[in-house]
From TrEMBL:
Pfam families: ALO (PF04030), FAD_binding_4 (PF01565). GO terms for cellular component: membrane. It comes from Actinoplanes aureus. GO terms for molecular function: D-arabinono-1,4-lactone oxidase activity; FAD binding; L-gulono-1,4-lactone dehydrogenase activity. PROSITE patterns: FAD_PCMH (PS51387). The lineage of its organism: Bacteria, Bacillati, Actinomycetota, Actinomycetes, Micromonosporales. Residues 12-176 form the FAD-binding PCMH-type domain. It comes from the Bacteria. Keywords: Oxidoreductase. This is FAD-binding protein.
C-alpha cells in the first residue's frame, strides 16, 4: 500500500503492507492459502484494532454484488462485501426486508454480523440473529458452509474474523413493511426512572438520546407501525421540526420524522441511505447490560455525568433481544445498551472509558466488540459462558494463526 490506510474514524492506522481486493471466492481461497497473517477489512467502522494486522489486509468490496432470494422468499444469500444500504435497495425491489438495521446503513453486512452490531427494539435480536448460513474460507483455503442447526454455527456467526474469510451469508428476510418515525424532546428524568420499561416497549424501535447534562433525556426517537396520538408522551414534547441525534448538526441527512409513513429501510436507520459519510470525527464505545440492570446502569453513568458530558457528543440508549450466539453481547439475555459517541480525542476519552468500564462491570456489562473499551481480556472471557468453546473452534478452523492479530491473541489468551 502506497498510502496510509485508516479506519473510518481515522483513530486507527493499519499496519499492513498489502491490501488484497479479490473479485471472486476462488481468488479469496488462493490468497488465504498463500498468506502468512491476514485480516479482513470491512467498511472500517470498528474503533479499535480488531481488524489490524502486521500481515495483509483483504477487502471483499470488489466481489460481485449478490442478492439471491430463496425459493420460499424467506431467505437471501448475499456476498461478503455488500453493505446494508445496497442490500436494502435490492430487497425493497423484491418487496422484502430484514428485521432490523443499525443507525448507519453504510456498514458492511459481514462486519456488522461478526461484531454483533445491532439496531433497537425489545423483541428484535441484533443483526447477526438474521444469519441462517455462512460460507467461510478457512486458513487452509478450504471453503466450508455452516448452517443454522450445525453444532459450530452459533460459535461462528459472531466470529470476530477469527475463523476465516466469510465470502457469503444467508439471511432471514420478511415481507417489506412500513414504519413511522416520531421524535420527542425533553423526556423528564422522573419518567426514565419510573417508566423505563414502558418507554422502551412503546415502538418497534426506540432510542433515547442524552448528553448527560441533566437527569432527563434530550430526545426520544420512536419508530412504530401505528400512528401516535397528538400531544405529550410520558411528559416529553413532540419535536417542532426534524432533529439530528447530535444537537446542532444538520438534519438534512437524517431519515424522515414527524410520523410520516415510509418503507422500513427509510425509517429504521437514523441516517438516509443516500448520505454516505466519508469520515467520522468521533470515537465510539458501547456496553450491554442485562435488561433488568438497565436502571442501575443509567444510574451508574449518571454518577459520572460531569466526566462523561465533558468528552461526549451524544449517548444513545437502546434495547436488544436475547439470542444463542456464543460471542454475542446479548447471549442468553435481553439487554439494554448504552452507546457513547465521543469527541475525536483519544487521550481525553480513554480515561472516561476506563471509569465507565469499572462502573458497569458489577452489572455484568459486555462491551461492543468493535468499539473502544478497556475491559481486561480475562474478564471478557469470563463474561461469555461459551468462550472456551469459541477458542476451541478458532483453533480447529485456524490452527496456524493465519487470522490472528495482537488484539485477538490478547482476547484468546
Amino acid at each position: 500500500m502506497r498510502e496510509r490506510l485508516t479506519n473510518w474514524a481515522g483513530n486507527i492506522v493499519f499496519g499492513a503492507e498489502r491490501l488484497h481486493r479479490p473479485r471472486s471466492a476462488g481468488e479469496v481461497q488462493e490468497i488465504v492459502a498463500a498468506a502468512g497473517r491476514l485480516r479482513v477489512l470491512g467498511s472500517g467502522h470498528s474503533f479499535n484494532r480488531l481488524a489490524d494486522t502486521d500481515g495483509d489486509l483483504l477487502s471483499l468490496a470488489d466481489l460481485p454484488r449478490t442478492v439471491e432470494i430463496g425459493p420460499d422468499r424467506t431467505s437471501a444469500r448475499v456476498d461478503g462485501g455488500i453493505r446494508y444500504g445496497e442490500l436494502a435497495a435490492r430487497l425493497a425491489t423484491e418487496g422484502l426486508a430484514v428485521h432490523n438495521l443499525a443507525s448507519l446503513p453504510h456498514i458492511s453486512v459481514v462486519g456488522a454480523v461478526a461484531t454483533a452490531t445491532h439496531g433497537s427494539g425489545e423483541r428484535n435480536g441484533n443483526l447477526a440473529t438474521a444469519v441462517s448460513g455462512l460460507e467461510v474460507v478457512r486458513a487452509d483455503g478450504e471453503l466450508v458452509t455452516l448452517t443454522r442447526g450445525d453444532a459450530d454455527f452459533p460459535g461462528a456467526v459472531v466470529g470476530l474474523g477469527a475463523l476465516g474469510v466469510v465470502t457469503a451469508l444467508t439471511l432471514d428476510v420478511v415481507p417489506a413493511f412500513e414504519l413511522r418515525q416520531y421524535v420527542y424532546d425533553d423526556l423528564p428524568g422522573s419518567a426514565v426512572r419510573d417508566h423505563l420499561d414502558d418507554i422502551l416497549a412503546d415502538g418497534y424501535s426506540v432510542s433515547l438520546f442524552t448528553g448527560w447534562t441533566g437527569p432527563g433525556v434530550d430526545m426520544v426517537w420512536l419508530k412504530r407501525h401505528d400512528p401516535m396520538p397528538a400531544g405529550d408522551w410520558f411528559g416529553a414534547r413532540p419535536a417542532d421540526g426534524p432533529r439530528h441525534p447530535v444537537p446542532g448538526m444538520p438534519t438534512v441527512n437524517c431519515t424522515e420524522q414527524g410520523g410520516v409513513p415510509g418503507p422500513w429501510h427509510a425509517r429504521l436507520p437514523h441516517f438516509r441511505m443516500e448520505f454516505t459519510p466519508s469520515s467520522g470525527e468521533e470515537l465510539q464505545s458501547e456496553w450491554h447490560v442485562p435488561r433488568e440492570q438497565g436502571r442501575a446502569a443509567i444510574e451508574a453513568v449518571g454518577a459520572l455525568r460531569e466526566r462523561v458530558a465533558a468528552v461526549l457528543q451524544v449517548c444513545e440508549i437502546r434495547t436488544i433481544a436475547a439470542d444463542d450466539l456464543w460471542l454475542s453481547p446479548n447471549y442468553q439475555r435481553d439487554s439494554l445498551a448504552l452507546h457513547f459517541t465521543w469527541i475525536a480525542d483519544t487521550e481525553a476519552v480513554l480515561p472516561v472509558v476506563a471509569e465507565l468500564d469499572e462502573a458497569l462491570a458489577p452489572l455484568n456489562a459486555r462491551p461492543h466488540w468493535g468499539k473502544i473499551f478497556t475491559t481486561d481480556p480475562a474478564a471478557l472471557r469470563e463474561a461469555y459462558p461459551r468462550f472456551g468453546d469459541f477458542a476451541e473452534l478458532v483453533q480447529r478452523f485456524d490452527p496456524s494463526g493465519t487470522f490472528r492479530n495482537e488484539w485477538l491473541e490478547n482476547l484468546l489468551g
